[in-house]
Design brief:
Chains A, B: Pfam families: MerR, MerR-DNA-bind. Chains A, B: Keywords: DNA-binding, Transcription, Transcription regulation. Two copies of one chain form a homodimer. Chain A is mainly alpha-helical. Chain A contains six helices and two strands; from the N terminus they run ααββαααα. A two-stranded antiparallel ribbon of chain A has the order 1-2. In chain A, a hairpin with a 5-residue loop joins strand 1 and strand 2. The structure holds a DNA duplex.
Amino acid sequence: MKPIAIGELSRRAAVKVPTIRFYEERGLLPTPERTEGNRRTYGEADVRTLRFIRHARELGFEIEDIRALLDLAGHPERPCGEADAIARKHLADIDDRIARLTGLRQEMKAMVEQCSGGDVRECRIIEVLADHGECLSDRH
Amino acid sequence: MKPIAIGELSRRAAVKVPTIRFYEERGLLPTPERTEGNRRTYGEADVRTLRFIRHARELGFEIEDIRALLDLAGHPERPCGEADAIARKHLADIDDRIARLTGLRQEMKAMVEQCSGGDVRECRIIEVLADHGECLSDRH
DNA sequence: CTTGCTCCTCTAGTCGCTGGAGGAAGTAGG
DNA sequence: CCTACTTCCTCCAGCGACTAGAGGAGCAAG
């Protein structure tokens, strides 16, 4: 297994180099070994971990949650109730966000469709934004 | 029309007091008049403007976009193509976010359901997050 | 050996707030 | 009129999660 440089890790995990260093500083990634010339070297495990982190971030997990999950992953003998709790919390969260965004989409769509292409005077976009009472949805 | 204090404005527009001052500093709210004792005083127009801002923020508009919209609103003689463009950009954005979140929801749901309640050893949550290839969706 | 890329550390900036310190002004009750 | 309480003022620091830049060193290919 040949060592992986930070740039390659960056490409393979689709995470920018400074962000990798940031994750290391925040304790999400283990302190990597260094070459003689003081460069970080990684292995395949780090690629997986970093993908895990990126993926979790895309799912909206906060750094703290991710650290908790990684801690858990590092201790396979512990029951996974905690990981489950974190994930469930996020499921609820995601449902909420989808509902909100769907409502907002309705409004935004209506706004765009009602725009007559004329002056701002008769532009519904600004009107609708100005008066919350005109919203199509009350989900927010 | 009696003057409105910042606290009342805050309650009526559902925007925190420091956030109001922040918006003022960022040029989203006009510099308000002051009382003899140096307190900001607002009017009904400010309530509407602030609601406009809050609403736009909830829709995910950035401060810069909001400033552009407000500028437009202040010049009713200009054509509203720009407002339309901003709103359209956001509609596309929202659609994208909904699609992504829906995919993520699937995954998250599968994760939670597959959690056996046993050890981390057989916990799907960590596995699924660790390996992007197991995703149910390719939308992200 | 030189060119050009990657990497190092460190610091500062981004966005959109949020909170606190320390003090002045306004208000309601006695 | 005095006191107590609330609201407001300014200024400054901090949050999360990066992102960007300066200034310098290491390394691989031609």
